[in-house]
Write a structure and sequence with these properties.
385 residues, flat, single chain, 14 helices, mainly alpha, two-stranded antiparallel sheet
Amino acid sequence: MLTQIFKERYGKTLIGACLILIAIYLGAGWQSQKDWHTQYNYLYSDEFIYDYTNHPSYYVKSYDGEKEIRYESIDAYRQDVLTIGKNHDGNDTYFYNDFSYAQPQLILLTLFILGFLTFFVDYRTNFTRFLLTLPVQKKTLFRKKIGFVSLAISMALLIGIVGNCLIRSLMIDQSYFMIPIANLLLSGLSTFFTNILVFMVGLFLGISLGNLVTGPLSVLFVLFLSTIGSNFYSSFRLLYSLAFLNGKEDVYAPFSLWIAWPEGRYYDWWVYLLYAGLFLLLFVVMEKVFLALSLDNEGEYVTVPFLRAPAYWIMALGTWFYLFMANYYPHDFFYIKLYDDFSETYQGIIFRSLLLLFVCLIISLLMVYPKALMGWWHKRRNKLT
């Protein structure tokens, strides 16, 4: 019975979403090999041979100070430009292009929004209310719905990722494609884990947020924060360098925690376990939220009371810390010490940090507890009158 209901409710939309995911991956793979063949044809054209012969300064391998280090021959240049997956030491190769037509942002955005809408739309259109009237346990409803949607999405992702890897590895000359197929598929597995995590975060927000206005606004804010994720990561690297290396060296993590496209890098074994633990945690919390859903809380920002306090503190302190790092506030403390002419002061940095914290606390309070605040305001106004 449930399977038939879910087919009628989600079938067409789910098929469309799966086809979009597969098309993005296969289209990107096709475009990658097409770009490689276009470059290959150009490098063996008379136009390129003439240009390389008459303008050698345009095709430099690297620099030794201001001195140009050129390629030994035109064939050496072709080999370097066309080879995909070669190892680099420092800046040995000046010109580099792996012809990877990657679309991770589009995939992750699609999965996140799809995950969010899976529960949010049902909650706002009363389909969840209909499901709760069925003679089926809530736990069974939740698990069958999650299984129905997640299985389709997972299959689409696997087909798309494997197809992308095969298109690139089989349609590009093997003498130039240096990424071992095993590494490429492992990179695809890492990409799959990342995709599923983003999808589950969307599911979690969709089942946790219930207000028609502030719910989508919160999702848009999360998407905005994701656009400065590179600043957040760079800030951590720079902070470590300032704290322990006096800012002399840039620092990269010795392992990857975020792989969003199959390009040859893959997670260490313990990262897969970490992701699996996050999947399980999100599943358990989402199930608890679904079991606690009540029509009495319809329209609330957070759909269940026991999540409101955690949601408030995570929103307030998490957003503050994220923006605090992404805007490089902590680094100013070190710059004051390192540079005598640095314009900032300790008092100014502390004031900006506290102001940001205050704004995050107030906005989070207005989002999570609007009804409680309105009730408090009416009581206070009645006492004054």
